[in-house]
Write a structure and sequence with these properties.
The complex is a heterodimer of chains A (658) and B (277).
Chain A (H helix, E strand, L loop, with lengths): L3 H13 L6 H6 L6 H4 L4 H12 L12 H12 L2 E5 L6 H12 L3 E5 L3 H15 L5 E3 L1 E2 L9 E5 L1 H7 L8 E4 L12 H14 L5 E5 L4 E3 L7 E4 L6 E7 L2 H11 L4 E4 L3 H12 L10 H10 L5 H7 L2 E4 L5 H12 L5 E4 L2 H5 L6 E4 L11 H8 L10 E7 L3 H7 L7 E3 L5 H6 L4 H7 L20 H11 L3 H13 L5 H8 L5 H8 L6 H11 L5 H38 L6 H19 L6 H13 L3 H4 L3 H7 L3 E2 L1 H10 L4 H4 L4
Helix pairs in contact in A: 5-6, 8-9, 20-25, 23-24, 23-25, 24-25, 25-26, 27-29
Chain B lengths: L3 E7 L5 E7 L4 H13 L1 H9 L8 H7 L15 H14 L1 H18 L5 E7 L12 E4 L4 E9 L2 H9 L2 H14 L5 E5 L4 E4 L1 H6 L2 E10 L7 H5 L15 E9 L2 H20 L2
Parallel strand pairs in B: 2-9, 5-8, 8-9
Antiparallel strand pairs in B: 1-2, 3-4, 3-6, 4-5, 6-7
Helix pairs in contact in B: 1-10, 2-3, 3-10, 4-10
The chains are: A alpha/beta (658), B alpha/beta (277).
């Protein structure tokens, strides 16, 4: 049988000894990426050489499409709307790059789930496509229509901010599009779904990329052609280990093979490191200035920098991007062999490795984590480097592992677009209902039972979409307002964004504590039992994640919904004190971290970009006007980097890109 | 067709034959004929991609397989002397000779056995890593299965002896025959990527021809070929079904090295013409 199971067996045999398989075996199982190891002067070999030559990619002549990729590529050309469902190492992004290179669509939008992945692609796409006249960007300095030959690469949030400047898109791609099947929990899901829905009609061609699943439902009315392949050119071994912690310590001590260690949370990761790995020394030569800068900007006792000095990478969400990038760059170039990571690595970046160790069962080995699990294990093995990847897990997790390690034939996903409850959550408008030919039994009736039913629902819906909030969150807000006599800003935050560390919030927004070290000192006084590294992490998370992505949007939303209500009913939804407090917090954040109290779009978008990358405002301030002046209208962090590298005066900032 | 087949000997069991490709051409014209059937645009394309029409660049890529690697993408600069030097260095490795004989055998099989034959691989049974059939050429169509061994030797006897007494080949052929028994999963995959599945019954119905081919420098006097023809009697294959055949063929040419030189020169000239240089 020619199937992936047998294909993997051939790969494993080849991994043991190249001699144990023949060129005929490779041909039979479509393993053309390995032909090079077996090609000879026989006529059959020359026939295969011709096929390889013919299938050579135009955008990268070192790579040839496999026959499976060709089948899907030809369908992508043919179809207006495609879903590509294939394993992690299939080369899905490569299909898109080849399409862009050969067909050169004028306006391309490529949505990815994280900023880190966007940065990686921005780099790669800039190298490939700038020469073809493309502008590669994720931000606009001046808000004006987008008509140039351009490729936007960024998260759904960034795209949704720009969507109104597109009157049409020639190619629209969503990477990890299975996220469109996630239940609507918050702004990320709302905005992703809205981005998809609102782009459907203005896009000439749509490609959704996702891991291999058995069935995809919920898009039947939208005429997507589902292109599936189980082809993967690398194989995997799975091993249950009784003393996984000991194996990990041994493996890190040996420091020979690339290892990725998956933890369900930063907390568990840090605990494991401090208990098991603190004494390991795989020290590497790190630029002293870079280390000093991280220690100055953040804290010398912060675990990720301490670990990196010992030659072990840590990669989790609450980290400035330039440090995440450093860890990944070192891992990819084998500067370091070991990275401890959380979810951030699964969708974060392309990080193939020889071995993956799954330390947690939570959020990865559950029955609802099947796609996520496939995405994680998909990183084990790398074409051209590791033919076979290994996955190790605790023996005690055997049962959970068996539930998670199911064949793709048992994974079915459903897009939320035809799920009534979810449709209301993403505030779908009438146009979309028409396209789906939906019966009109779905009403935006979520305000009917409240005392705000006079507010036009379409306007409420627009606000929800604009700020990425769900109907349920609005309902919670309205109920809180109705039920609470003593409203407060912190109360609203607590209701909408549960689990926010109020101590960190308070310290982060207080102007008195200017430097990061001062903030750490102050927070230590408030939580003296916490370790310094935990305090640093919670502050970083507050400053780089919670404040900009949760609290500021909530403030903007409450201000706007309050104004809308006032406009429609003559009464405020929230009292003046709450609104003033919200505005004050917002001003404090901008003033302290973005450096501008009332930012213009131009300044805000550039400082935001630097802030998102992890460069503190006080470092950028002296050069801000010059960068703003020189930056092109469509830009990404790479354009900022170029400006910094072209001007010796900005030497001080280069360190963040090294 | 300038070539015809004349049988020269048969084994006592009558299943093994030795034949010669005969013609009335001069050696000079024979060389040209061989190259014309190999490099004919349609015929060559068929060898590489069956029914796919030639696209821009395909012909050049196909012809490039027939020139030495150092000549690729600088075809117009290559002098005859360079080809001759390259051939000399290749002579020790035999690689180009083998390749050329295999390509010619594939062509002759199509022209003389079945014009629907395509090259590919056969996988028999569950054993993952034995797709290889141990032969130089594997070809099939709906009606025929051909395994071929090709030799390009200085004389006929050495080449024929090598084929007939290649233990590895005999054992693999026997192995192939025995593995077909009782198997349910036989896969034929053509060079075009098409896959055909056969049951044991279906595959056993298809006649298998083992086609051994020796391209060699002509010997004078040709009376010496008789010794080679007798080699068919030394072939012993266990459980050889009655509708299976072993046919040995040979084709004498004037000079091994001269044909190889001409093969590369002609391929280079055709590429230069294709490139419009």
């Amino acid at each position: 049988m020619i199937n992936q199971i047998n294909r993997e067996q051939v790969i494993k045999l080849m991994d043991e000894s190249v001699e144990s398989v023949s060129i005929e075996d490779l041909f039979l199982y479509d393993l053309s990426p390995y032909y090079e190891d077996k090609l000879d002067e026989s006529f059959f070999s020359k026939q295969l050489e011709f096929i390889q030559d013919k299938n050579q990619l135009k955008h990268n002549i070192d790579i040839s499409f496999t026959s499976e990729q060709i089948k899907i590529y030809n369908k992508i050309i043919e179809n207006r709307r495609s879903i590509v469902s294939a394993p992690t190492s299939f080369g899905k992004t490569m299909l898109v790059k080849e399409y862009i290179f050969n067909h050169q669509p004028q306006k391309v939008v490529f949505i990815v789930p994280t900023n880190s992945l966007a940065d990686e692609l921005l780099d790669n796409f800039s190298e490939l496509f700038t020469g073809l006249g493309y502008i590669i960007f994720d931000s606009l300095k001046n808000l004006e229509p987008i008509n140039d030959k351009s490729i936007f690469i960024g998260t759904q949030e960034k795209y949704y901010n720009l969507i109104e400047f597109y009157d049409g898109i020639d190619l629209f791609v969503i990477d990890e599009a299975y996220k469109l099947t996630d239940p609507i929990k918050g702004s990320r899901e709302v905005i992703l779904n809205r981005s998809f829905i609102d782009t459907l009609e203005i896009s000439n061609k749509i490609i959704l990329l996702m891991p291999l699943v058995n069935s995809i439902t919920g898009l039947e009315e939208l005429n997507f052609d589902i292109l599936k392949s189980d082809y993967a050119p690398v194989a995997k071994n799975f091993s249950a280990i009784k003393k996984l912690d000991r194996k990990i310590t041994d493996s890190i001590n040996r420091n020979e093979e690339t290892n990725l260690f998956y933890f369900s949370s930063p907390k568990y990761l840090e605990k494991f490191f401090l208990k098991n790995l603190n004494k390991i020394d795989n020290s590497i030569l790190l630029n002293d200035d870079w280390v000093k800068r991280v220690e100055d900007d953040f804290h010398p006792k912060w675990l990720p920098i301490q670990a990196l000095k010992l030659g072990i990478g840590i990669h989790y969400g609450p980290m400035p991007k330039f440090i995440q990038k450093k860890v990944i760059d070192l891992f990819k170039t084998k500067g370091i062999y070991n990275v401890l990571a959380t979810n951030s690595i699964i969708e974060g970046v392309n990080t193939p490795t020889k071995n993956i160790y799954i330390l947690s069962s939570k959020d990865i080995l559950g029955k609802n984590d099947l796609v996520k699990y496939k995405n994680l294990i998909g990183r084990a093995g790398r074409l051209g480097e590791h033919k076979v990847g290994n996955i190790f897990y605790w023996e005690k997790h055997q049962k959970q592992f068996e539930n998670a390690n199911v064949p793709y034939e048992r994974i079915d996903i459903q897009f939320v677009l035809q799920n009534r409850a979810e449709i209301i959550e993403i505030n779908r408008d009438n146009n979309f209902k028409d396209e789906l030919n939906f019966k009109s039994d779905i009403q935006n009736d979520y305000l009917e039972d409240s005392s705000y039913s006079s507010v036009p629902q379409i306007e409420v819906s627009n606000l929800l979409n604009k700020h990425g909030f769900t109907v349920n969150q609005l309902k919670v807000l309205i109920k809180y307002v109705e039920d609470t006599s003593n409203l407060s800003f912190l109360g609203i935050i607590g209701k909408i964004n549960r689990g926010i560390d109020l101590n960190s919030l308070k310290v982060a927004l207080t102007h008195k504590y200017k430097s990061f070290n001062e903030m750490v000192e102050e927070l230590t006084k408030l939580v003296p039992t916490d370790e310094t590294t935990k305090i640093v992490s919670s502050l970083i998370e507050m400053i780089y994640s919670v404040l900009p992505f949760k609290i500021i949007p909530l403030i903007n939303f409450t201000i706007d919904i309050n104004e809308l209500y006032f406009k429609q009913s003559g009464k405020s939804l929230l009292n003046v004190d709450v609104i003033n407090e919200s505005k004050k917090k917002k001003a404090q954040f901008y003033s302290k971290f973005i450096g501008i109290d009332e930012p213009t779009h131009q300044a805000l978008v550039i400082v935001n970009k630097l802030f998102e990358y992890g460069i503190p405002y006080n470092r950028v301030k002296p050069y801000l006007s010059e960068i703003t002046e020189k930056i092109p209208n469509k830009f990404s962090i790479h354009d900022i980097k170029n400006i910094i590298y072209q001007d010796v005066k900005m030497n001080d900032l280069r360190i963040y890109f090294e | 067709m300038a070539l015809t087949i004349t049988n020269k000997s048969k084994s006592t069991c009558a299943k093994y034959e030795f034949s010669i490709y005969e013609h009335t051409l001069s050696f000079f014209d024979l060389d040209n004929y061989i190259l014309s059937i190999l490099y004919d645009e349609t015929k060559l394309n068929y060898l590489f991609q069956i029914d796919e029409p030639l696209k821009i660049g395909d012909r050049i890529k196909q012809l490039q397989r027939f020139i030495g690697n150092p000549f690729k993408n600088r075809e117009e600069e290559v002098l005859d002397s360079e080809i001759r030097i390259n051939i000399k260095s290749n002579e020790s490795k035999q690689s180009y000779y083998t390749f050329f004989a295999e390509a010619l055998l594939a062509r002759l099989n199509i022209d003389f056995i079945d014009n629907k034959l395509i090259t590919g691989v056969i996988s028999v049974g569950q054993n993952i890593s034995v797709t290889g059939h141990g032969t130089d050429v594997c070809m099939f169509s709906e009606n025929n299965l051909v395994l071929g061994e090709a030799k390009f030797y200085g004389n006929l006897y050495s080449g024929a002896y090598k084929i007939v007494n290649d233990k590895s080949f005999v054992s693999k052929l026997e192995d192939n025959i025995s593995r077909i028994n009782g198997t349910t999963d036989i896969i034929l995959k053509g060079i075009n990527g098409d896959i055909t599945r056969k049951t044991e019954k279906e595959i056993k119905k298809i006649p298998l021809t083992f086609s051994g081919f020796v391209l060699h420098t002509s010997e004078i006097p040709i009376i010496g070929y008789g010794k080679s023809y007798k080699l068919v009697n030394s072939i012993k294959i266990k459980d050889f079904p009655s509708h299976y055949k072993i046919h040995l063929y040979h084709l004498p040419i004037e000079s091994k090295s001269e044909l190889i030189f001409k093969a590369q020169r002609k391929a280079l000239d055709l590429i230069i013409k294709e490139k419009g240089l």
